[in-house]
Amino acid sequence: MHCWKSINVKKQYGFYRIFFLSAILVLTVFSFLHVSIQLISEQPMYDQYFLWFTIGFLLIYPLHKVFHTLPLAGFLSLIQLKTRFQFFCVPIMSVRVNKPIPKLFFILALVSPFLFLNGILFYGATLFQGYAHYFTILIAYHSGICLVDFLYARSLFKSPKGAFIEEDDDGYEILIPVKETQYPGI
């Protein structure tokens, strides 16, 4: 296999641009969902259970990482989970795949947290409409976390069919199988 392209969204866009785009996404998603649910629901909002909201807020990031691994269940022996702390208290978790895996599985692993976790939260918002503002805040926050995954997935969609994705320290490498050709006389 040879490397078709290397992708590092964090270097390509930079920390501040990603943070800014993520903040815009969070505000947009919250505004749209909150107004939409308020138009549909006639139930008043309640501010009880704020402790549960705080626990949910703290669990979003670890659950996001867990949902990254679901589509990679067949590759569990290749997955490496690491946790490091930034500023002595903020856990930064990373899910790394040590060997190349098919592009489809990698794209599914990138978008699965958004689909599953936001789906669960949206269901909660429709089921418990009095607490929909809590759920819409969590959906918006999680959508902001998913921005980097969407940027990577967008780059991977443009890669050739049959490609494999390998993760390294500088991002992702898109690997293409080398076709063996017959050269007469060699």
Automatic annotation (TrEMBL):
It comes from the Bacteria. The chain crosses the membrane at residues 15-37, 49-67, 104-125, 131-152. Keywords: Membrane, Transmembrane, Transmembrane helix. The keyword Transmembrane helix applies. InterPro entries: DUF3267. The keyword Transmembrane helix applies. This is DUF3267 domain-containing protein. It comes from Jeotgalibacillus salarius. The lineage of its organism: Bacteria, Bacillati, Bacillota, Bacilli, Bacillales.
